[in-house]
Protein 1
Amino acid sequence: MSDPLEKIDVLVATLKELRLHMGRLDLRVGDRHLNSQLYFSLANACLRNRAVLLYGGMGANKTTLVNLLGSAFTGLDFDDVENLMVSGHPEQTEEKMVGFIDPRQWSSSGGEAIEVLWTPWSRSNWKVINEINRFPSGKQNIFLELLQKRKVNYAGKTLNVGDTCYFVTMNPDFSSTYPLDEALLDRISVSVPAIQPDLLGGLALAERNEEIRELAKRLPRFGAEEFEALPRLVAEVDLDNQVELAVVSLIRDFTLCERAPGYDKSQLSGTKPSRGLCAGCHYFNNPEVCCWQVDEALSDRVRQDLRAYTKSMALLTGLADADTKIEVLRAIAPYVIWHRVSPNRSVLERPPYYGARRLEYVRDLVEKSINRTLNERGDMNMIFSRAIDGEISFKEAARELAGYDDPIACLDYIPALEQMG
Amino acid sequence: MSLKGFMKEAYKGKAREKRRLKTRDGDFVLGFEDFVQKVGDRPTWSEVEKLAPSDEKLLFGLIKTGPRAKKHDQIVWGFLSSLVAERIPEPLMLPAMDFAGLELRKGTIILDGGRGAHHVGEKMSGGRIVVKGEAGDYLGQEMAGGGIVAGSCGDYAFRKMRGGWGVVLGRAGDYLGLGNRGGRIVAKERVGSRTGWLMESGRICVGGDAGSYLGIMMKGGRVLVKGEGGAAARAGWRMRGGAIYARGYGPEVGAGKVGGKIYRRRGP
């Protein structure tokens, strides 16, 4: 078996050489500039049971790229991978996507149990859901169940789909699209804007004079063993304590709310920051604090996704053993979070966001949270740690922490110390 | 591993176990909007002074930004403008806005770029305020010291003045010097009606003509009108003290007068 990581490097180079993907270098990881659409798709291919959403206008190479990667990683022909994909439209049914009962069973005399013929898409470990927002809202629930339980149910039968790579594509809101359910969005691990190629990319694409399916045959192919080795390689990547702390603090920064029950924003119903909840709050309008700038809390699923994609991206970018995995977290975190939260409209509408740059908005919040954790929270974290480890009394620690104007100190640490004391 | 060990590793030994430096000095102030929320419903000089950042740059930043639609916010901004003017050696240049120079004690404020800001220099006890252009109503209200120069002004200018001086280079509105108990006012052009109403002390000098009811019910002080037309009707109505000097008067001059003197000036 050859080194799967080397093969991925060859795959990236070949995609570029054959002019099959010429995206902008819009993702900066440490000092490397990468294309987010390609590298998040590759990172997802190295993981299992996570979904990456490619979001963008028509012709941004979303579906083709995913199918090209599917062809390379599964070893199938490009056409076969295309046939595996399910596409959204109102007439799409569960029977067409998931499976159907073999009609020949009705004519058989025996009393055997009903057999379901599962579709190739159901059985595949490379599942592409094309244009998910063209599925009516009710039909989107099929994917909710699939992403939640990793199982497909039909006619009382269950298919355990096993470890699978999920890819989803989506257009912006058009006349024939439907809104995506928030619960389904939360189960999508990463959302990546698929941006049209720039001028140089366009010129490079003009040099392509063969059909994509013909060029796809020249891509390197992964054997089953190599493909299965990728999640193991990701699992071997260790995250240092700095990254772990930054991840947990990031989740808490988005989740804590002084006015919510249990200081937990996910408990809010009806009222929320964008509906005046924060008026007069001590933290309101403080640009360094995240709580009032987004309506939603982040679930533990986000923490798992942040860890998984940090590991996967570190592996792909050769930073698996480096001391700078925090830079990987900085790079990937906005893509993990931005589709799960609603920004404060009054801030989003102003420059430099102009109501349109939601990803940039979340990127700035992520940056603030990580910087605050690394640069300003050291002392208070040490005080809390010393109290937990019994070096100082809870009372003394709470008194010292009261001097810190930080949501985590005030809403997490002090209540915890009071409960323990 | 203990939590402390985890944190030590996370911060790579950079985090301190004990606090050696003060982490903050007073509350963070992130902008004018943030600052006004810390001030009570009835702002006072001492409260604003206590909460204001000691850093001059931060303080100046507060008066440069921030919405001032509410009267509460305008008053806080007014106090801050005076605080900045006191702390800097050079004149403070500001756009003319309501309550600028509120309770000013020293320093100089130059207001420019706005039209008709009200309550400028209210309750000031020292320093100088120059309004380049038109001032609104209540200019220098209840001032006890210092001086104000304005291009023109609206109604109730220098109301209840106790000391200091005011110069209006153009026209002044009605009720100039209402209820004054001291101070000196010079209005170089025409003034509106009821100038010097209920005046007890101090001086008002008008370069142009005066409107009706000049010195109405005044108890003391002096009003001098230099304009060719003099004062309009009912000058010195029910006056009880003080003196009015004018080149001429309209009808019913001194009606109901029980004290004081009304003079007709002959010279320039």
Note: Chain B has a mean pLDDT of 88.
Protein 2
Amino acid sequence: MAQLPTDGSIAVRIEYFAVLREHVGRAQEELRTTATTVGELYGELDRRYAFPALGRVKVAVNDEFRDWSSPVRDGDFVVFIPPVAGG
Amino acid sequence: MSHFEFSREPFTPERYRSRVSDPVAGGYASFEGWVRNHNEGRGVQRLEYEGYEALGIKEGDRIVAEAFARFPIAQAHCVHRLGVLGIGDLAVWVGVTAAHREAAFAACRYIIDEVKNRVPIWKKEHYAEGDSGWINCEVRTSGAPAGSALP
């Protein structure tokens, strides 16, 4: 994250769980993105990985639930949350 | 201390009795979720639970705090298993104590319902035929597709 962005991009860390972890083939990754919201970031990753059609996916930034319109900032830790099934 | 936790190892509710015992309590209500051998007409051999633990503990604790705000209860605690579970294994336990039983029953029901809906835990079923699937996440061939997501 010390690397200076020259293209307006930011560095984010993504962790994948369950069906998304298996689909992507890894539990986490760090990447640079020009996305400004978590919704845009999801769209960017969906274009790269062609995520499976899921029901209502939620998103968390830095271990808190956020709206899809929430900003994504340099150094953020982002998790996309597929439909849950505890109990 | 959080009122919600994950356990990677099998546990018995007895282990958490001290988290719900209280001298003002006149009743104790609990719920145990067990792994059953079938789901939606298919034979299930085992389950895997995966959790986003950092957020799960926060959300689970928020749910128990809501139960404290809604019902006159004394103590409440919830533990959810992670990892591979076999048929009959304890997957989740909720314990609530209260001066009177009505509040204990109601809060216990509230906590398990909200945990199932909100805590980031995923369940993979392994079927008798050898295949497997993430519950609520699969596009089922026998039913309507889950539909396109978002945002």
Note: The longest helix of chain B spans residues 53-70.
